[in-house]
Design a protein that fits this description.
This protein is α/β, with parallel strands linked by helices. It has ten helices and six strands. The chain binds magnesium ion.
Length: 229
């Protein structure tokens, strides 16, 4: 159990907390490769180069431009092609995505005991497709996609998503427990509303510095749920 009063509700992040975001990014890189092949590029080479760029840091802009440079596409030709390739990336919708081990059971266990929300950042259509593809769309009492509250400015560490989730669940925001993988986003948003948090060490940010620190740390979502059981 966590220190402090009993939690009133639990908020779970989606990307790299419920499922490996790398699985989604790999699919998106394949979609870009197919779009590249359709305009005469070496599709598999574009996919490989983009995948490498995304693994080096998926939050950085310009990943497609750099992948084309790695493939030896001249800058003028790249400038012509990038809009269609970006469209292929944004338009990619996974049919199925894997979840982390025992993640679905963990969500069921949590929901049996607490009101349960998902608070996630990103393009709303893409985040909804991920929820459907992972099969967890119905695992929550409510889903808050921060971009729908106020665009990119509402993304974590902005606490608006947590405030909205607390309101929808009918609990005080400071009695939420937030489970997420990114200290600078999930833990920071929790701290901003005085809520406790559990960091999961899964995905791209597993080794990121503990800043700000979480109330507790767990190897994955299943272990985080066990802390709250
Ligand atoms: Mg995340």
């Amino acid at each position: 159990m966590l220190p402090g009063p009993p939690p009133q509700a639990v908020v779970v992040d989606l990307d790299d907390t419920v499922f490996p975001q790398a699985a989604y990014l790999d699919g998106a890189a394949r979609a870009v490769g197919r779009a590249g092949a359709a305009v005469g590029l070496d599709g598999p080479a574009v996919t490989r180069a983009l995948r490498a760029q995304l693994r080096a840091g998926s939050d950085r802009g310009g990943t497609i431009d750099r992948a084309l440079a790695v493939c030896g596409v001249p800058p003028e030709r790249a400038a012509e092609l990038v809009p269609a390739l970006v469209a292929a990336f944004i338009g990619y919708r996974p049919r199925r995505l894997p979840v982390f081990p025992r993640a679905r059971t963990a969500l069921t266990t949590l929901r049996a005991r607490y009101p349960l929300a998902c608070v996630t950042d990103g393009n709303p259509a893409i985040q909804r497709a991920k929820l459907a593809a992972t099969g967890v769309a119905d695992a929550f009492d409510t889903v808050v996609i921060t971009d729908e509250l106020g665009g990119r400015a509402a993304r974590k560490p902005c606490p608006d998503g947590l405030r909205r989730a607390a309101e929808l669940l009918g609990v005080p925001a400071d009695l939420l427990v937030v489970i997420g993988d990114r200290p600078g986003k999930d833990m920071a948003a929790a701290a901003a509303v005085g809520a406790r948090s559990i960091r999961v060490r899964t995905g791209e940010y597993a080794d990121a510095p503990d800043e700000p620190p979480a109330t507790a740390t767990a190897p994955d979502l299943a272990a985080a749920a066990a802390i709250l059981h």
